[in-house]
Amino acid sequence: MAETKTKLTEIDPVWSRIREEAQVAVQEEPLLGGLVHASVLHHSGLAEALAYRTSQKLASSEMSEQILREITDEAFSSDPTILQASRADLVAVRERDPACHRFLQPLLFFKGYQAIQSYRIGHWLWHQGRRDMAYFIQMRVSETFGVDIHPAAKIGQGIMIDHAHSIVIGETAVVGDNVSMLHSVTLGGTGKEDDDRHPKIADGVLIGAGAKVLGNIKVGHCSRIAAGSVVLEEVPPMKTVAGVPAKIVGEAGCAQPSVTMHQLINGTH
Description:
Blueprint: H1 2-11, H2 13-28, H3 33-41, H4 46-58, H5 65-78, H6 80-96, H7 104-108, H8 111-127, H9 131-145, E1 147-149, E2 154-155, E3 160-161, E4 167-169, E5 174-175, E6 180-181, E7 186-188, E8 200-201, E9 206-207, E10 212-214, E11 218-219, E12 224-225, E13 230-231, E14 239-242, E15 247-251, H10 257-260
C-alpha cells in the first residue's frame, strides 16, 4: 500500500493532496462523508473523480447520470489534454482565489471550476461532430451554474472564474492560458453577424467583475480590464483599460495581473 501511495504521489501530487484533504474533511464534518467518499475517495484518479462530479451535477430527468458519466469518461480517455487543463484550472483556483484554502474545494463546491470542466466536455463533443449533445451540455451548464459558454468557444488552461455567476462566452471567442475573470463577464458580439464575431483574450489577462468585451477584438497578453468596463476596441498588451467605453488608463501594474489579481487602478496596483 505504501508503494502504491508513493507512485500516486509521484504521478499526480495534486490528486494525492485532494485525497488527503478529503480524509480530513470527513473527520471534521462526518455529515459530508457520503458526498466526499462518492466524489473523491471512491475514485483512483482526478479524471475519474471529475467524470463522476460533472455527471452528477449535469444529470436531469432528461439525461441520466450514467449516460453523462459514459460520455465524460470517453472524453477524458480519448483526449488527455482535457485532464491536463482541468488540473491546471484547479491549481489556478487554489493559487489565486483567497477564499480557496484546499484543492478539494473547487472540485466539490466552486461552480466556476465545475462549469469550466463541464464546458470542456461539451467542447470535446463539438469537435467529435456531436453538436446536439454539446448544446445539451451547454444548456445544462447554464441551468446548473449560471454560466453560458458556447461549446465551440476555445478556452485555454489555468483558468480561474471567481464566483462565476452570469458568465457569457460566445461561439467564436478565444480565451488564452492563465486568464482570470470575475462574475458577470461577457465575451460577446455586437450584432447579428454570423462570422468571427467574438473577442480574443490573450494569455494572462485579468477581467474584472461585470466587464463586457464585445466584438471581434484582441485583448493583449497580461492586460487588465477594470470592473464594469465596456471594451469595444483592441487592448494592447500589458495595459489597464477602464470605463464605458473603455480607454487605456495606465500600465497593467505587474507582470502577471491574472495571477496577482490586483484590480486597483490608482497607486502601485
